[in-house]
Amino acid sequence: MALPRINALPKYKIEIPSTKEQYDYRPFLTKEQKVLLIALETQDEKQILTAITNTIEACVDNIDMNKLTTFDVEYIFTQIRSKSVGEKSHIGIKCSNCEETNEVTINVEEIKIKVPDKKNSDIRLNDEYTLTMKFPNYIHMLNNDRLKNSKSATGMLIELIIGCLDSLKSEEENIKFKDEPIEEVEAFVDSLTSEQFNSIMEFVNDIPKLKHKVDFVCESCETKNSHELVGINDFFQ
């Protein structure tokens, strides 16, 4: 005789930051939490991010991970976690003065992501070509071995830029970067002028991120601290 499943799981609504679409989701179960904990123990970033992906797919009804941006995934996971293990997260932050670690409590449900009204951004490169940018796709970045294997900050930045390139348009053609060999895309980036590259960097620097400002007084030296948490790793140390 099979054992009964004794818990009726509650359902919640979540709005995807990049699309404003609403989905139903549930808290994660012990089986999903075990996978997350095992991934955290390995300290392997790709394994951790894959576990987060699998958790979202299991907990959110009819979600298509291939359509989610990097910040969508971060936000969705924080909300699932808050309904699963509690709305409060306790993290250690070093004092800016004495570097003593202080435990700070944050309410995960207060975390919001500000997304510009326009999903895509057009950059006029010259009289002939217009470059259309997009927010980086989570699955693309997760499976990007070049990004994982990059040994320099510059190399990682270039991979992020490539992940934000959508199309190159002129009156005669509309070239989709995803259809082009990576060597051709790299050569295109390398051919840009400093002014053109800086325009791309403005878009990249404005990509929405999971952020939250934390103010606390150091328990050791009583210095007032103001610290900004950025990215999912900062929220669950």
Detailed description of the structure:
This protein is globular. The protein folds into two domains: 12-113 and 209-235, no CATH class; 121-205, no CATH class. Strands 5-6-7-8 form a four-stranded antiparallel sheet. Strands 1-2 form a two-stranded antiparallel ribbon. The chain has helices at residues 30-42, 45-59, 70-85, 138-142, 145-149, 153-164, 182-190, 194-205, 232-235, and strands at residues 12-15, 22-25, 88-94, 101-107, 121-124, 130-133, 165-169, 174-176, 211-217, 224-230. The mean pLDDT is 88. The protein starts with 11 loop residues before the first strand and ends with a helix. The chain is α+β, with helices and mostly antiparallel strands and 237 residues long. It is 38% helix and 22% strand.
Q: What proportion of the residues is helical, as a percent range?
A: 25-40%
Order of helices and strands: EEHHHEEEEHHHEEHHEEH
The shape, in one word, is globular
Distance between the termini: 42 Å
How many helices? The count is 9
- Which structural class matches the secondary elements? alpha+beta
Percentage beta strand: 15-25%
**What is the number of independent domains?**
2
Number of β-strand runs: 10
Radius of gyration: 21 Å
Note the main sheet.
Answer: 4 strands, antiparallel
**How are the strands of the largest sheet arranged?**
5-6-7-8
Poorly predicted regions: none
Mean pLDDT: 88
